[in-house]
């Protein structure tokens, strides 16, 4: 059952709850909410990068974050696995709840959080070690027994649609793979620790159209098991793969809803201008 969205509206300021905009019976995913962001503000030093963000993201769907460069998409993405903790002078107020637990709670084990919330970056970043060791890295540091590792590596590489291409050369360096294969390897590395949520920060921006197609297909398959958030500058990509889209500008969430609604019938003039290429 989805909680009454107004329970989060303590600031009284135009919050955005996509669930509120669409009758639940018309939403493709009416299951439990996975991530609830409320009254979230973030500063880098004195510069405010996120302004009173309210957003709910349901489980097992792909949610796209779009908006002009510098609007705060990656910053918001990084609040979901507390990557901004690593940034000096970064101050965060508000709540980010995953399965109803505030991850900014002082008892949060950040290592465990990052296991549950995996991240794939813009540029593929395999470790300078073998294909096998890249995927085995996470399970090993989380204490998985040696005999279970090969099975986990095989499962993750299969899930990342890379197994057939690498099964005969698992001991070769990961850096010998093509860019698209390296990105699928990074996805396999993320999947190997069995996350619930995967954050993708412009995962295809360094890839050619064929590799991009493979990653997009993979993301669509993965949403059956994982909740996916993707930051993208590619409007076609957002329409091809995402179920929901949120549009940001200058640190503010301008509009959110089902992807087809945002692209075919945006409510805010700024969203319309952006998606039609009239600014950004
Ligand atoms: N580590 C940091 N220290 C200081 N300011 C930062 C830091 N990271 C981001 N910012 C600033 O915060 C704002 C939001 O940046 P962010 O990278 O989240 O935007 P974005 O929408 O993801 O941009 P892009 O699409 O260009 O990647 C920008 O003004 C940026 O300069």
From TrEMBL:
GO terms for molecular function: ATP binding; ATP hydrolysis activity; phosphate transmembrane transporter activity. GO terms for cellular component: membrane. Signal peptide: none annotated. GO terms for biological process: phosphate ion transmembrane transport. CDD domains: ABC_PstB_phosphate_transporter (cd03260). It comes from Methanolapillus ohkumae. InterPro entries: AAA+_ATPase, ABC_transporter-like_ATP-bd, ABC_transporter-like_CS, P-loop_NTPase, PstB-like. It comes from the Archaea. Residues 35-275 form the ABC transporter domain. Keywords: ATP-binding, Nucleotide-binding, Transport. NCBIfam families: 3a0107s01c2. This is Phosphate import ATP-binding protein PstB 3.
């Amino acid at each position: 059952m989805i909680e009454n969205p107004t329970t989060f509206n303590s600031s009284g300021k135009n919050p955005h709850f996509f669930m509120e905009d669409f009758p639940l019976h018309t939403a493709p995913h009416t299951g439990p909410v996975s991530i609830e962001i409320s009254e979230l503000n973030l500063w880098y030093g004195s510069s405010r990068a996120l302004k009173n963000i309210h957003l709910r993201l349901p489980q097992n769907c792909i949610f796209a974050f779009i908006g002009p460069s510098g609007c705060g998409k990656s910053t918001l993405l990084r609040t979901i696995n507390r990557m901004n903790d690593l940034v000096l002078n970064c101050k965060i107020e508000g709540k980010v709840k995953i399965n109803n637990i505030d991850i900014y709670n002082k008892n949060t084990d950040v290592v465990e959080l990052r296991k549950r919330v995996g991240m794939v970056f813009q540029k593929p970043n395999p470790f300078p070690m073998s294909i096998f060791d890249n995927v085995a890295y996470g399970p090993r540091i989380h204490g998985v027994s040696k005999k279970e590792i090969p099975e986990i590596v095989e499962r993750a590489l299969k899930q990342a649609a890379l197994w057939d291409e690498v099964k005969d050369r698992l001991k070769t360096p990961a850096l010998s793979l093509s860019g698209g294969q390296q990105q699928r390897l990074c996805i396999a590395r993320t999947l190997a620790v069995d996350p619930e949520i995967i954050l993708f920060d412009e995962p295809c921006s360094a890839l050619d159209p064929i590799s991009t197609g493979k990653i997009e297909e993979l993301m669509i398959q993965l949403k059956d098991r994982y909740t996916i958030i993707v930051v993208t500058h590619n409007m076609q990509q957002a329409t091809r793969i995402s179920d929901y889209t949120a549009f940001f500008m200058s640190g503010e969430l301008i509009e959110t809803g089902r992807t087809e609604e945002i692209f075919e019938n945006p409510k805010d003039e700024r969203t319309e201008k952006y998606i039609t290429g009239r600014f950004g």
